[in-house]
Amino acid sequence: MTPLQRERLCVDVCALAREAGDAILEVYDSDFAVEHKDDRSPLTAADIASHKVIVAGLSTLTPELPVLSEESAEIPYLERARWTRYWLVDPLDGTREFVKRNGEFTVNIALIEYGRPLLGVVQAPVTGELWYAWDDGGAFGQSSPTAPARRLHTRPRAVPLVVPGSRSHGSEREAELLSRTGAFEKLPLGSSLKFCRIAEGAADLYLRLGPTSEWDTAAAQCVLEQAGGGVIDFAGRPLRCNAHETLLNGDFIAYGDPATDWARLFA
Fold first, then answer.
1. Distance CA 178, CA 4 (A)
2. Are 178 and 184 in contact (CB under 8 A)?
3. For the segment 117-160, what is each residue's pLDDT rounded down to a tens digit?
4. Distance between CA atoms of 174 and 208, rounded to whole angstroms?
5. Which whole number is the average pLDDT over 174-189?
6. How many angstroms separate the most distant Cα atoms in the chain?
7. Which tens digits make up the pLDDT trace of 52-81?
8. Full-prediction pTM beyond 0.90?
């Protein structure tokens, strides 16, 4: 797939992400019910509505490619292991934030090739913001559906460091690691928005200690990498998808400034 083909595909996926966001908002503006999965994570009609929109759209755009979505994640590893290229989707990243009605949730769609995100789209339904990127094409953002696209670039390490962090997670270990960076300011933020704020140069570092799923991170990883940053494990290796039977990520570091050896700092 050439960069031009990726760009054209990315335009179509951006439109699909906005369509999924509209489906989410229809539920968001209603008196919705909340169920719980076996792992106690919440599930709403918005997750399902977005999933159906995205799977139908991707099946039309690229009928030859499989789709792995949070809402259809039961595909056995023996089957997944044969995939060289596939779609990885979180129809509603931040369902807890959706339930809290704080607006900090996103639609995440990524195209994975040989374990790495080749294309990524992140859409925030409430604000209308959109972030997207493709390999060798750069990263872009829109503040609203009618706003012009702007090229995204991460910034040099700021003082104090701006550290977006989950509203739902945190630990003493995280506080200890962050103390090694010098002065920093926490920015409570949900879902993939943390990566996107770093990609657009509004924040610097996101530490995640504890499990996340690959569909939580892949699309935003592509955006951040193409904006000049990265997402690595604590050994300094970029996050990879579909490399193990589990779909869970380990601890990771999402950063904006590549001039800092973050893995060494937190070793």
1. 40
2. yes
3. 999 999 999 999 999 999 999 999 999 999 999 999 999 999 99
4. 8
5. 94
6. 50
7. 999 999 999 999 999 999 998 889 999 999
8. yes
Cα distance between residue 94 and residue 166, in whole Å: 10
* DSSP codes, the chain: --HHHHHHHHHHHHHHHHHHHHHHHHHHTS----EE-TTS-EE-HHHHHHHHHHHHHHHHH-TTS-EEEGGG----HHHHTT-SEEEEEEEEE-HHHHHHT-S--EEEEEEEETTEEEEEEEE-TTT--EEEEETTTEEEEESSTTSPPEE----PPPSSEEEEE-SS---HHHHHHHGGGSSEEEEE--TTHHHHHHHTTS--EEEE-S-EEHHHHHHHHHHHHHTT-EEE-TTSPBP-SSSSSS-EE-SEEEES-TTS-HHHHT-
- β-pairing, 248-249 vs 212-213, is antiparallel
Please state whether the peptide bond connecting residue 160 to the residue before it is cis, i.e. omega within 30 degrees of 0: yes
Distance (Å, whole) CA 111 – CA 177: 32
Counting Cα atoms < 13 Å in the Cβ hemisphere of 1 gives 18
As a whole number of angstroms, the distance between CA 141 and CA 156 comes to: 19
CA angle 235, 238, 243 (to 5 degrees): 100
